[in-house]
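One-letter codes give the sequence; the integers encode the fold. A sample entry reads:
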Amino acid sequence: MAAILGMGNPLLDISANADKAMFEKYGLEPGGIILAEEKHMPVYAEMQAKPDVKYIAGGATQNSIRVAQWMLQEAGATAYMGCVGKDANAQKLRDACVADGVNAQYMEDPTTPTGLCACLIMDKERSLCTSLAAANNYRADHVRQPANWAIVEKAKIIYSAGFFITVSPEAIEAVSTHTRQSGATYCLNLSAPFIVQVPPFRACLQKTLPDVDYLFGNETEARAYAEACGWETDNVEFIATRLSLVPMNEKAGKTRKRHVVITQGCEPTVVALNGMVTLYPIIKLDSSKIVDTNGAGDAFVGGFLAALSKGKDTKACCEAGNHSASIVIQHSGCTYPAKPEYSW
């Protein structure tokens, strides 16, 4: 059974280069992440018509799980759940997961198309425009099905990006509270400023936090959290420290401490534990080697979780995360070579 289970919003990434005019046409910003409105819907066909278009099994959580599987190179090390439609795009996702070695247990909604994410790349920056479609329809009764719950019970690590909060708080609650008894490690990602800025989403995050062993995010999301909570600081180390001190529920009868892991692009990664901060250096690449920053954060988490599943310490987990992120940003989209060339 899988050591790492991801639960999230499966999307078929449609990735291609775009010019400034196309960004302006759809009101998109480099580095932005938005949910598509009616005015954005033509972007998907426009991207699919591009000669350099690539189709990638995407969605933040699925990216991280695929990277973890790639880093581990062990059959059946990872599993993934989310909702897709009953269409050709869902089959593309299934095929990609089979090729990657990920055990994808999708819930299928025949009435709604599979979710899409347009990944517009300009000058090595990307803008993501997401139509959740079927991904928005995941229901907690899917994870409670005996075969799927068996995966939950066997998993050592369960991970969701914060985007899943917008879809199924019930599924998040079911698995995160289960880890109190099982002792499994529960991990969550802040994922985007809007997750912490929208009150119902922030409420779910704060309700789940006592069960979260590892909280991931980047400096923008950390600052958005502080602002939303009225902390009146933009000091990332202080914010990480404060998040690390939110009390945790006991797990399997043991008191645990939360690791808060905040990436900062080309600056060192901040890790707070029990109110203490440690900075871990990143792998700096020459800008000429960077193809696309899309998926860098997801790749970092994937490498980190792979190392965590092997029982590695925080330093080794950050090193693995840095390695996977440094490889992925040298490729278009969240893709990578056949082997990670990483020594455990």
The longest strand covers residues 78-85. The mean pLDDT is 94.
